[in-house]
Batch of 3 targets.
Target 1
Amino acid sequence: MRGVTEDVRLDELPLLDELMPWSVAPLRLGRSWIVAPDVRTLRARWDRLVAAEGARREELFRPSRARTPSSSVAALPGQRTGTVRLSREPGPCPEPVRLAHGPFDEQWLLPDHRLIDTARPELWRVADGHQLFAVEQGYVPGAAGPALLMTAALPEGRSPAGRPGRIRPLFRRPGGREPNLAPGLLPLLSRRYGYEVGAADVPAWAVAAALPTPTGCRVPLPEDPQVWAAGVALGRRLVEVQLRGARGGERPRLPGGRRPYVRAAVPARPTELSYDADDEVLCLGEGRISPVPAGAWEFEVGGVRVLEQWFAHRTAPAEPGSLEAIGPAAWPQEWTSELLELITVLALLAEAEPERAALTARAVASGADRGALREAGLLPVPEAARRPASVLDHQEEGPEGQFALL
């Protein structure tokens, strides 16, 4: 970042918070057993919980100040789960939903409000087949990696280093309606670049050009239309890779001869992950996957190596007798498939990093800053744009089966 910004004050660049003003803090799950890399594990944990009684159920539940088995809460928007106290009538296992548990690590979550300390219902109200989420990573001084990631899964929003980021839905209402953009931004950019700028162009540009700073992501808005067009095109490619086929996109693929394959089967319980740079081999115990480009192995977000964290989430030891200790008896085949795809994603993003860094430098050098937004009346952003929209499209059930008042 030093080479990009040495002649430009970072605080002169617009904040992502000024371009996409509605944001939500990360979820606080409260208990780790409600998340798992596979659905079967979550259902087995639920069955173990509801089979226990009294003090043993409470012990397995892992109560917090926000949630105990006796908590009475409303249903999560869009989820058919019980609202009767868990201690009295647990009901059937909730149908697990996809969760972006960390950068590039999609797992599964039990979407029951009685289990989650702080679920951010405003996110669930707009999570549908049209929605995407921009996840701003917490700032880590000197850390490598992207400042902004995109996912179609509901994001937990916490960065690998534990620092809070922000979750920014692309749309404020279900059905892909009302872009989460500063009022007047699209007309301003359309006049500047000489063609109609679409709502999806802004987050695509941000993925390509965002800079991490202590005050949040800074997003230069260039004066040069060619720089903008090149950045939007690059950003769309990066977003498609990150989404991994979601929302109608293509699944990422490396060229023939560079695609990773399993050369030796992953053992039932691998405990170590290592990398042989000379042969481009990723080792999971006795298992071997290659070719794995060095860029994929070294790819970091928030100062944490993505592949190492992904592996740790699936192999870290758990307290015996706890619900977290319930998991697959052996390494599932689908985990290997997910790992091969993750390697592909990281390799493609690493290959694009020099182009992305050069684009950011061109954008900063192009000269646009927050002053242009102030002169156009876009700043300060109206407070209404920072609050969630009123979403009253369907009835929500409140605690103990009562109707919720929205």
Target 2
Amino acid sequence: MSKTPVEVATAYFEAWHRKDAEGIRPLLAEDVSFVGALGTTAGVDDTLAGLTGLFAMTSSVEVVHRWVDGPDVITWFELTTTDAGPLPIVNWSHVESGAITRIRVTFDPRPLL
């Protein structure tokens, strides 16, 4: 039975908190796309490689609030890195058949540059 969009988004951020890329893998569709302020990825392997790079500099990720509208989940969270933060970030995930197919992220990247 497929997980609901909010269950998938919750599991995604819980795995991120643990820096568990393999825990995120089953939550992503094979053709997942990511577009954010610092880059884009296409496909599960490319997206996981990008996340793994982010894990290396992440001190903490804390979900502030989550909104759900059918298959779309907006998560407002704060990211703290070794050099900056907490940074307010918005993640918009689109979920189909229990897997994230599209991730869009927006934030002010200046503290990281």
Target 3
Amino acid sequence: MMNERIDLPQGTLDLLILRTLALGPQHGWAISERVQQVSSDVLQIQQGSLYPALHRLERRGWIKSHWGTSDNNRKAKFYGLTPAGKKQLAVETESWRKLTVAVTQILESA
């Protein structure tokens, strides 16, 4: 089962993006690569999911964007956390932790 990719549970994409951006501003491709790398290739964010999520987070005021130059000298849109995004990351992290504890308790009780 090593390196087997799994689908992200609904609602976790925002959390992963916010957590990745907590490290500093990134462009979309770098966000996707970071999630894939840190998850040992288990989680992969498709562009068709990533960019709508980034736009949604921006509309909510949790991230902001600006144009810049990527490592390979290409024009790219960089995203960074806003103060509201940092608060939301804390809220979503706590919710995720509560959910995983509850699911673990159920799985281990059988």
